[in-house]
Specification:
Number of strands: 8
Low-confidence stretches: none
Largest sheet: 4 strands, antiparallel
Mean pLDDT: 95
Structural class: alpha+beta
Order of helices and strands: HHEEHHEEHEEHEE
Number of helices: 6
Radius of gyration: 17 Å
Strand content: 25-35%
Helix content: 25-40%
Shape: globular
Distance between the termini: 18 Å
């Protein structure tokens, strides 16, 4: 894939479209200049202010063109992340935008927690945890905040709505990698 450095700019422009209530992104022009944007890819858009999370929404599976996924998820991260109020114009000036382009998740076969521990690579793998109706994911960058396997998975279990020790119930685990691009 070519120059991904333009993705945060694309995400920022899509948020600005909502503030200015006008179209700022010419989809055809962007695709002409960056043809890889029409490839079906999954992406997360993460917003941070002063290093603190301010919004993060993304797609796990590649269901649409990368340009459309980035534009949609940027707006969702800014205005519809249920953990935060809508981004304000004042915050927009201070927000840092990061886009993570994901590989297709692969199921991790494991017998027990020790085998899982040997198959998950901290700071490399993003993880999807699924058990019953509960599911959550952490991008590879979350390892920076939760660098210990047990802590990482306890928080992931809780994010999915399960108890912190949910690995004892042998949830389905997928791993993926992400190319992260910051402004």
């Amino acid at each position: 894939m070519q120059d991904l450095k333009i993705l945060p700019k694309l995400a920022r422009l899509s948020i600005l479209e909502k503030f200015e209530n006008k179209k700022l992104i010419d989809r055809d022009e962007w695709i002409r200049e960056y043809p890889y944007l029409k490839e079906k890819r999954a992406a997360f858009v993460t917003l941070k202010i002063d290093g603190k999370l301010r919004g993060c929404i993304g797609s796990i599976l590649p269901n649409r063109a990368l340009i459309d996924d980035v534009v949609l998820n940027a707006k969702l991260a800014a205005f519809e992340d249920p953990r935060f109020p809508e981004l304000t114009p004042e915050e927009f000036d201070r927000v840092k935008v990061e886009v993570s382009v994901l590989t297709i998740p692969e199921k991790v076969e494991y017998e027990d927690v020790n085998e899982l521990r040997s198959k998950i690579r901290p700071k490399v793998d993003g993880v999807i945890l699924s058990l019953g109706n509960h599911q959550a994911t952490f991008l590879p960058s979350v390892w920076e905040e939760l660098p210990v396997f047990d802590l990482f998975f306890a928080h992931l279990c809780m994010k999915s709505g399960l108890s912190g020790d949910c690995l004892r119930f042998h949830p389905t685990i997928y791993r993926y990698q992400a190319i992260e691009v910051e402004e």
